[in-house]
């Protein structure tokens, strides 16, 4: 248990220049802060975001008054926050506000226990053997992250054929350099999207995949060394032709070294997820994000429908670390992979790296290795790897 002696919040800007929240919590033996990210492609089933102009005064007033002077562990704090909010979707206080308090308290409690955050989280999850997750680098942006005529939101390179995190980051950086050269040669433009990947104006999804495959090959890597993953974010695509997309997924699974396809259909289309999983799920991971929103009930429904075999884990989709721990546990209970993920509107906070390690996530998405709010996560993973060695 840790006694909270102070709690404060302020408004800061995220990587897109939009307002977000930073929370500081002090306990008798430690202090922790948390800067909360925000998403552009947001599922309807996610915890609601309350505008910082409203959330910050609530945190500094009502929430601070309710918490300061009381003792909590992580589970009781998060349960208290859920009760204090009093809604099913955290729409009163905001999932962004509750997460800020939850993570800041975790850092303070970890400091009090003289633990790294990932160690503290590992203790919460009951995970004793910690490992570094496989990174997935979004080097070609589309959808709501770029507005460049590309439907697919994220085209990722996944350097599976390397041992250390530094080697994996270096391989991704080599693909970025190769892709930039290709885009320059084709005069397609090298501006970047929200997550640091290039956002060229392309002719469509097939051209984007060709560019990605070419960047891997021209960087000198094989299909065994670097795989491709996609986040389609289908709920954000207008006039989606489900049958045509289904056939396209089958075709690209044969043509490219695909590791995973995330959100291939809309957020409540469990049946088409299940059909795709039945068709190519043994070869390609079918990943739920908007479908599952880090929510144990949605994960359970996906399991009953045999819809997926991997789950995106975004703490701000659900609003507390305790609920995040439960979502990862539910994912692993089904024998699926957990993919810890940043958001398109990020901060310099690296807590998602500690979440990925501490909760035993097999993968992590943190964007292209090109912008400081993204590279900070990879730097933290390299640091943690040295601690685990």
Q: Topology, pairings included?
A:
Elements: E1 2-13, E2 19-27, E3 30-35, H1 52-67, E4 71-72, H2 74-85, H3 95-112, H4 117-125, E5 134-141, E6 154-159, H5 165-185, H6 205-218, E7 226-231, H7 242-255, E8 258-262, H8 270-280, E9 285-288, H9 296-304, E10 310-313, H10 315-318, H11 321-333, E11 337-341, H12 351-358, E12 363-365, H13 372-388
Parallel strand pairs: 5-12, 7-8, 8-9, 9-10, 10-11, 11-12
Antiparallel strand pairs: 1-2, 1-4, 2-3, 5-6, 6-7
Helix pairs in contact: 2-3, 3-4, 4-12, 5-6, 7-8, 12-13
Produce a short descriptive summary.
By secondary structure, the protein is of the alpha/beta class. Helices cover 43% and strands 18% of the residues.
Description:
The chain is α/β, with parallel strands linked by helices and 389 residues long. It folds into two domains: 2-114, Enolase-like, domain 1; 134-388, Enolase-like C-terminal domain (TIM Barrel, Alpha-Beta Barrel). It has 13 helices and twelve strands. Helix 3 (95-112) packs across helix 4, helix 4 (117-125) runs parallel beside helix 12 (351-358) and helix 7 (242-255) packs parallel to helix 8. The two termini are 30 Å apart.
């Amino acid at each position: 248990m840790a006694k909270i002696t102070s709690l404060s919040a302020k408004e800061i800007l995220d990587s897109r220049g939009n307002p977000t929240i930073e929370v500081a919590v002090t306990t008798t033996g430690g202090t922790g802060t948390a800067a909360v990210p925000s998403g552009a492609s947001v599922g309807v089933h996610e915890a609601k975001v309350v505008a910082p102009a409203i959330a910050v005064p609530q945190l500094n007033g009502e929430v601070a008054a309710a918490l300061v002077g009381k003792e909590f562990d992580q589970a009781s704090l998060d349960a208290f926050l859920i009760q204090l909010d009093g809604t099913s979707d955290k729409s009163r206080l905001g999932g962004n506000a509750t997460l800020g308090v939850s993570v800041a308290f975790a850092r303070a409690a970890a400091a009090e226990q003289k633990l790294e955050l990932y160690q503290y989280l590992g203790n919460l999850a009951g995970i004793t053997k910690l490992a570094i997750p496989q990174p997935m680098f979004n080097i070609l942006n589309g959808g709501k992250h770029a507005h460049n005529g590309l439907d697919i939101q994220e085209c990722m390179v996944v350097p599976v054929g390397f041992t250390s995190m530094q080697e994996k980051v270096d391989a991704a950086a080599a693909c970025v350099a190769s892709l930039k050269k290709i885009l320059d040669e084709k005069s397609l433009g090298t501006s970047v999207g929200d997550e640091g990947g290039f956002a060229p104006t392309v002719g469509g999804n097939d051209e984007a995949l060709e560019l990605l495959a070419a960047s891997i090959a021209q960087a000198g890597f094989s299909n065994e060394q670097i795989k491709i993953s996609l986040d389609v974010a289908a709920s954000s695509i207008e006039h989606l032709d489900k049958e045509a997309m289904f056939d396209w997924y089958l075709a690209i699974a044969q043509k490219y070294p695909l590791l995973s396809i995330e959100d291939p259909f809309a957020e409540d289309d469990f049946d088409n997820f299940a059909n795709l999983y039945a068709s190519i799920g043994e070869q390609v991971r079918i990943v739920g994000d908007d479908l599952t929103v880090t929510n144990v009930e949605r994960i359970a429904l996906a399991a009953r429908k045999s819809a997926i075999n991997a789950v995106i884990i975004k703490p701000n989709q659900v609003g507390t670390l305790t609920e995040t721990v439960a979502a990862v546990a539910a994912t692993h209970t089904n024998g699926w992979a957990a993919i810890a993920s940043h958001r398109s509107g990020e901060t310099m906070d690296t807590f998602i790296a500690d979440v990925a390690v501490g909760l035993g996530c097999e993968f992590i998405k943190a964007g292209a290795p090109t912008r400081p709010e993204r590279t900070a996560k990879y730097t933290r993973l390299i640091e943690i790897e040295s601690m685990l060695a």
